[in-house]
Amino acid sequence: SKEGYPHFMLKEIHEQPLAINSTLAGIEEGAFNKVVNAILDSRKILIIGAGTSYHAGLVGDYLLTSMLGLDTHTLISSEYRKYLNAVNDGDTVIAISQSGETIDTLVAVRAFKERGAKIIAISNVIDSAIPRESNYVLYTRAGPEIGVAATKTFTTQLTVLTILALKIGVATGKLTTNEYRSAMDMIGKIPGLLQNVITKTEGKVKALSEHMSKKQSAYYLGRGIGVPLSMEGALKLKEIAYIHAEAYPAGESKHGPIALVEENYPVVFSILDDDNADAMLGNVMEMKARDAYIIGLVPDKYVGKFRELLNVTLEMPSIDYRVAPVIYIVPMQLLAYYTAVARGYDPDKPRNLAKTVTVE
Ligand code: M6R
């Protein structure tokens, strides 16, 4: 049941602290250890998924590549053919699918398996098709997700991927035991932080959605791990509010997309507490110079630096960039939700979409 919420999507957004807690409580050390060993034995890691699961994969890729220096490639499941020739015996493929039934991902799993790759599934549905055909499984424990838009399954996928990256880090010596422990402590704090962000931003986001509901198009910009985060924010708006939304790395603006920006064009910036914050300031200024309508998700310690330039400031906690996507996506989910409602659409049942795509 919707437990008093008007839609499943809103209920599921609010359930995220709980979903992450359950996922953390359900971590099976044995299963993780096997996966870590499989990865240590392989030359290369491929990550596959569709839609939101692909975006989770890109976040995981960012951690494996930039934090650990592993040879990682992430692809949309339906594009698996590009890599068929590049995969060898013992390479690992991480297949991400909340339903475990997405045909594109299942087909790719079968093809890579035939090539000799070991398959690690990350799924929210026990014994679904993809976990059944995989060598190893890590489960998210988000509980059933009814809304077509993936919300709590995304943040729990990110939780599992971050823990996996940390465990690989400590096993390879890239992270010290102390670094590993303090990062794990930080993950334990996510549910509380996320709850605070919901409480602090929901009213403001709802007010913003009235404005957003009249727009035809929007940009979502970030750098680093903020790029896949922005891609996920844009997908949410597109999928349920039917507003064209595009995400790209903020540094690309002047290479083309800024041509479209005119007065009041909405741009959502995800500014993280990382090495990119200064460059992001420059990117916000270049949009300001075109009188764009700028929405910024800003870590509290940078609010003073950015506020003047922003039309709407959504204050985020100043947290390690590695866990920022889990927290930052929540106001963007809420923005998509309230914008869909303001436009008179049912966010639980977007047109043309099914919860699980089982035909190629
Ligand atoms: O069940 P899966 O995670 O394999 O689903 C993949 C996509 O179809 C899914 O994430 C889709 O993009 C969502 N509806 C987006 O909100």
TrEMBL record:
Residues in SIS domain copies: 35-174, 208-350
The enzyme's E.C. designation: 2.6.1.16
First-tier enzyme category under EC: transferase
Main location as per UniProt: cytoplasm
Active-site residues per Swiss-Prot or TrEMBL entry: K355
Keywords of the record: Aminotransferase, Cytoplasm, Glutamine amidotransferase, Repeat, Transferase
Record localization: Cytoplasm
Gene Ontology MF term list: transaminase activity
Catalysis: reaction(s): D-fructose 6-phosphate + L-glutamine = D-glucosamine 6-phosphate + L-glutamate
Function according to Swiss-Prot or TrEMBL: Catalyzes the first step in hexosamine metabolism, converting fructose-6P into glucosamine-6P using glutamine as a nitrogen source.
Subunit structure, interactors included: Homodimer.
Name used for this protein in its record: Glutamine--fructose-6-phosphate aminotransferase [isomerizing]
Organism: Vulcanisaeta souniana JCM 11219
Residues of the full protein shown: 252 to 611 of 611
